[in-house]
Design brief:
This protein is mainly alpha-helical. It contains 6 helices and 2 strands, in the order ββαααααα. It folds into 2 domains: about 60 residues, Orthogonal Bundle (Helicase, Ruva Protein, domain 3); about 25 residues, no CATH class. The radius of gyration is 20 Å and the shape is elongated.
Length: about 120
């Protein structure tokens, strides 16, 4: 298994798909990386050479925020919202949907066990 920035990526999948197993890399960024480094998107990840892996590591560390740094950044943003007492922070703290979704039906099943919402009788 090729190891890129400390993460083992699946070796039996196409490179385009394997790169997406790294937190912070979606389809668009994976395509951009492959084009920038002039790699074949259809090759399997196990076919990467040591120099290709080194180039990927170097590019990801220097130009992008991914994996541990991105997780830390997101956690800090949520902590900041909670500490200033914003609406979004209170929703995060209560474990309720943050971005305006309805809570009457599905929110309880998606976010874990039941929570009372606005004096509703269950």
């Amino acid at each position: 298994m090729p190891r890129i920035i400390g993460i083992d990526i699946p070796d039996k999948k196409r490179l385009l798909i394997s790169l997406q197993s790294i937190y912070g890399i979606g389809q668009t960024l994976a395509v951009e990386l492959i084009e920038k480094l002039k790699l074949d998107p259809n090759m399997q990840a196990q076919d990467l050479t040591e120099s290709d892996i080194a180039r990927l590591n170097k590019t990801l560390q220097s130009e992008y925020v991914v994996e541990g740094d991105l997780r830390r950044q997101v956690r800090n943003d949520i902590t900041r919202l909670i500490s200033i007492g914003s609406y979004r922070g209170r929703r995060h703290k209560a474990g309720l949907p943050v971005r305006g979704q309805r809570t009457q039906k599905n929110a309880r099943t998606r976010k874990g066990k039941r929570k009372t919402v606005a004096n509703k009788k269950i």
